[in-house]
């Protein structure tokens, strides 16, 4: 199992993941538009791989996926838009994972050029059989537009329904990187309760509401800072807590935790935790006071 950090590690880990697939690969991403990845999908189909892809039906509310589906379908992969339950107003299939017959990948990165060149992202690749089985089951349930049942894996954090787990994680959080602070009052209260034990970084380009919430957190003792996008775009969703690390697609919003399709993972490896901690501490030092 290996953690990769973007933009330092670039697109190579994803390219290698797809190239070593021999039987099947199921991909669920909010966005897939990097030409290099699309080309690897095309090559996988030429090898006879069963390639299935789910993408969101309306990223950013702009209907971009109509273009994405056409281009992805040109690879001969089987492509579907997210299930209708994730296609309501302000609800998304925001997941970012893929699983093959031998490996799985979960992270904060969309399959876009920005993810591998400008953003702070975390990507986790592993072989754990139980996690692979759970991700396969989750994908198939969304592919068939059926409710997922019997998916039990203590390492995975799956939305809808992840708010209680995220709250539990945040109650002992030490370092947080996020694209948003969000609008979930329980999340804000839990972050506030950590006071000076918590450091949190979001992008300085975040919404006015997010900046206002960061100021409130700072007033309550939380060490809150902003990352200028010209240094690094903070797209990550990562939490260092207790002896573990959480990374995933979840933002700290009520919709993300309770209505969207989102997938995250709790990482227990000491070496991976140390690697992520080094990056998060360095990011903290590069960020600016509010």
From TrEMBL:
The residues forming a coiled coil are: none
Q: Name one GO biological process term.
A: lipid catabolic process
Q: Does the keyword Magnesium apply?
A: no
Keyword annotations for this protein?
Endonuclease, Hydrolase, Lipid degradation, Lipid metabolism, Nuclease
Highest taxon above the source species: Archaea
Single Gene Ontology MF annotation: RNA endonuclease activity producing 5'-phosphomonoesters, hydrolytic mechanism
Q: What InterPro entries does the record tag this protein with?
A: PLD-like_dom, PLD_domain, PLipase_D/transphosphatidylase
The UniProt record lists the keyword Methyltransferase:
no
Ranges for domain PLD phosphodiesterase come to 230-256
Name used for this protein in its record: Endonuclease
């Amino acid at each position: 199992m290996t953690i990769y950090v973007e933009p330092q590690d670039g697109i190579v880990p994803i390219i290698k993941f797809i190239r070593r697939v021999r039987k099947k690969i199921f991909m669920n991403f909010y966005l897939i538009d990097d030409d290099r990845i699309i080309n690897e999908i095309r090559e996988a189909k030429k090898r006879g791989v069963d390639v299935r892809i789910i993408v969101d039906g309306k990223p950013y509310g702009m209907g971009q996926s109509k273009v994405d589906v056409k281009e992805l379908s040109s690879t001969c992969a089987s492509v579907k838009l997210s299930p209708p339950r994730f296609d309501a107003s302000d609800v998304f299939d925001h997941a970012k994972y893929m699983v093959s017959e031998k490996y799985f990948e979960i992270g904060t990165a969309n399959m876009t050029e920005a993810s591998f060149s400008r953003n702070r992202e975390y990507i986790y690749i592993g072989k754990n059989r139980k996690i692979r089985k759970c991700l396969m089951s989750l994908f198939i349930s969304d592919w068939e537009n059926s409710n997922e049942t019997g998916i039990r894996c203590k390492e995975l954090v799956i939305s809808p329904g992840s708010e209680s787990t995220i709250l539990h994680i945040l109650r002992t959080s030490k370092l947080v990187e996020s694209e948003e602070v969000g609008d979930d009052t329980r999340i804000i209260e839990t972050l506030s309760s950590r006071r000076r034990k918590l450091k949190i970084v979001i992008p300085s380009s975040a919404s006015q509401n997010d900046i206002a919430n960061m100021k409130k957190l700072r007033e309550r003792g939380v060490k809150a800072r902003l990352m200028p996008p010209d240094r690094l775009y903070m797209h990550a969703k990562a939490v260092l807590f207790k002896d573990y690390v959480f990374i995933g697609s979840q933002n700290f919003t009520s919709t993300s935790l309770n209505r969207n399709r989102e997938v995250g993972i709790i990482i227990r490896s000491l070496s991976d935790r140390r690697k992520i901690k080094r990056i998060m501490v360095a990011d903290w030092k590069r960020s600016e006071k509010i």
